[in-house]
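Throughout our pipeline, every protein is held as a single compact record rather than as scattered files. Such a record has a labelled line for the sequence and another for the backbone structure tokens. This encoding replaces a full spatial description with a residue-level series of whole-number codes. For reference, a complete record is included directly beneath this paragraph.
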Amino acid sequence: MKILIEQYGYDKDRLSAILDPHYFTEMHNGKAKIPYVGYFLSRKIPDTVFILPKVFIIDGKAFGEYEPEKIIDFDNLKQEHKANVFSLSVWIYRAIKLYFQRKDKVSDEAEIMQNVVSHQGPSNETMIDIVLSLLKFDKEHKSLFTYITRLKHSGQNKIHWQKTISKTQALIQNRVPVYLNPHTKQKDINFDEELIVLFYSVLNYLAQEFKFNVPPAFGYDLLKPETIQSMIESGKGMRILRQNRRKYFTDEMVQLWNLLFTFFEQSQYVQSKENDDEQAMLVREFNLVFEDMIDSLIGDNSLQGGLKSQKDGKIIDHIYRDNSLIEDKKQIYFIGDSKYYKDDNDIGPNSIYKQFTYAKNVIQYNIDFFNQNPEAFEQTNLQYRDNTTEGYNITPNFFIRGHLQAQQLNNYSDANLQLEKMNDGKNHKISYHFENRLFDRDTLILQTYNINFLFVLACYVQGAGEHTQEIRKIFRENIKKVLQEQYDFYAMTPREGVDVEEFLKENFQQFLGKVFTPYRMGGPQPYYSLALDKDSNHNDENDLVLALIEPGFYYEKCLLGQDPREVLPTVVQPAKTVTPASLLTTHHIQRYPDQHFLIGCYHSKEQFDWIMGKNDKGTNLYNVRLKKRGSVIRDGALPPTYLAGLDVKFVILYEHNAEINGYRVFHVHHHATMDEERMRKALYPNPQGNYFCYVFDEEIQLSTRINLPEIISDAKSSADYIDGMPIFKTGVELFNSYIK
């Protein structure tokens, strides 16, 4: 058996003696390298060749101990390494074959399949497949072999006295007859035993070629390897098996017969002079196999258009959903890129820039989804942006690389994740437009990990389901740890009587990118997250932010993932009351000449209480029904384009069908469109169709009184007016015509 390593510079003549030229690439100075990884059965030597990934070059040496040229011959390995090398060679082979099978099922991966070289044989199996099948059969049927062996030997040496006395001559010694050739109970030919002998003889033959330990053979006299080789070359092995095919009746022995027949058939095919094909299972770009290995371990293959396969043609190596870094109630996408071999240039500026581009594309994909259909996006349980603070959630990015330790070449069970320092001396990289704004759209964090290559290899071949959540948790906890080393995190909740939106708006520039609303604890008390960079250059800025927050919020340091209720007090907000006119903000109509005042009515105290948000779903809004496209205007419904074109700054409310003795005025913070379902959730009675809603932030008073009865009277004189429908007037119209 020969051992070669991918991309290592060997002497060209040495490689030419083992492989045909199309399997390697010439370099300068008489050197050549192999771009493949996998299994090859060379007819030149003839011998088996395993080409291992370059990850097994540790500190410039194969397995951290040998010059690669010296272990081309397997026998040059130390005894303690021989079993490990055969084992890992088989793992690599099985991974490549699984990759071939997985990608072969996906039609749009045809281009990738050009990297796979697969020559097998008449049974569609290589010799490695046959070895593994035979070893597996031995492992699973030890009890069967033990039973057959015991049955064969039971009573075999027991003397048959009647035949002995009648057919042999006894010698008399000291008056006692002695029979020198007694008759024993001999069984007929045991065909099961013959098959078992052939089975272990074949295993012994293969062990010489593939260098694995031979399982015990229950004391049978085995055929020599030279005899098995002769049976292959002459075809005798297949002839014997065909002659005895009808002698086996149990399912197990029929299965063993099939395995042995496949072995002789495949061996004869491989060694036939008429056969021009060389057995091979090779992959040209093993990084694609490693990428698939990592993706099967942590990725989510159900994510396709716009996420894994992005609109700009880029394809993300790994992406999956997991809990947000700040709290567990909402989720975020984790984005990864894998590199199976570490070198000085594998994570340079280009790779980092590419990874940040992936993250920005994913953020934009989700923001587009949110803008197009906020309610549907809410059902996804993802959170990327908070409209109250205009902050963005943290989007984690990571690189993951294969890692090996020379002393642990048989460690297939330990994930062994650890942080790896990047080229700039840090184990993470943060990209930003503005410093000290963690919750900014353009602030992105990137970490680098090493992972035990053998662990990933075993998970890929055996199935990784049980480890997926474990690995994802490690990623999440490590990124949280890095963030908490660089930032102080605080939980915030508003003090009694504080209007949060107004408070944040007044200090918007200082809070932007520093405050986010990740907490979904339930109940009326809101919680916010504040992140401040620990760098001493930001001390003055951070002191200012905390001083500004103090009057409006209770705040305490709170670790990522910690429940804010553990550190903050319970706050009961006072019931909403009508502000005395003497304390209301005064606005002068003449300051809003081109802006509009909406004059609307309510029909009952219950409706007014709903408008003022005096129920549990309080929203402080006034709604106008939207007219459907093509329908006539009725019941006060108005076209959406008409309403959207009005710059409404104030809403003036009066009670319908009552003597107009007064009115109340409210400042409009923003407007929004709400459908029946959202209005129903807001406890609006009998919603029908869509509504254009004006959201209030405070009640105000006008500097001068307007003649509201005259405005309504003038509106009723219009043929288009429907009783109770909203009336829109500009500041100029109100001031010039209706001031008392």
